[in-house]
Design a protein that fits this description.
about 140 residues; mainly alpha; single chain; 4 helices; about 10% strand; 4 strands; two-stranded antiparallel sheet; about 65% helix
């Protein structure tokens, strides 16, 4: 079989198509979550913190330098921990959503345990006879 034929067989296999669909949907869902966190969650958190814009939160490691005219010649060095907090919030929301999906799928996959099959009629009759003989035996 040629390499192209092998690739075609691989690409049309069900699992590969499912994975491709999942990646596309996951990327779109990630954009939705990012917009939700950036546009709704973080402004609310900032409001609760007294109007503080968390996305701009940073620690200055080294201040910027200005020339004689007051123009900045060296930008300040910052640790932007606010962006990290937003990314953590994005991750937490996506992880929780995936957890809910996996939990629902697992619930659907679980099959109720079937009741044990009744023993054949002969075995049931012999068991009954044995139990009767035990009761009457001295």
């Amino acid at each position: 079989m040629s390499m192209m034929g092998e690739f075609r067989e691989f690409a049309v296999r069900g699992n590969v198509l499912d994975l491709a669909v999942a990646v596309v949907i996951g990327a779109a869902f990630g954009k939705i979550v990012t917009a939700f966190v950036d546009g709704i969650v973080m402004p609310l958190v900032g409001m609760l913190l007294g109007g503080f814009d968390l996305s701009e939160a940073a620690v200055v490691l080294k201040g910027g330098q200005l020339d004689a005219a007051g123009k900045e010649i060296v930008a300040p060095v910052l640790l932007k921990y606010g962006l990290l907090l937003q990314a953590v919030a994005d991750f937490a929301i996506v992880a929780f959503a995936i957890f809910l999906v996996v939990k629902a799928v697992n619930r659907l996959r679980r099959q109720p345990e079937a009741a044990p099959a009744a023993p054949p009629e002969e075995v049931a009759l012999l068991t009954e006879i044995r139990d009767l003989l035990r009761v009457r035996a001295p």
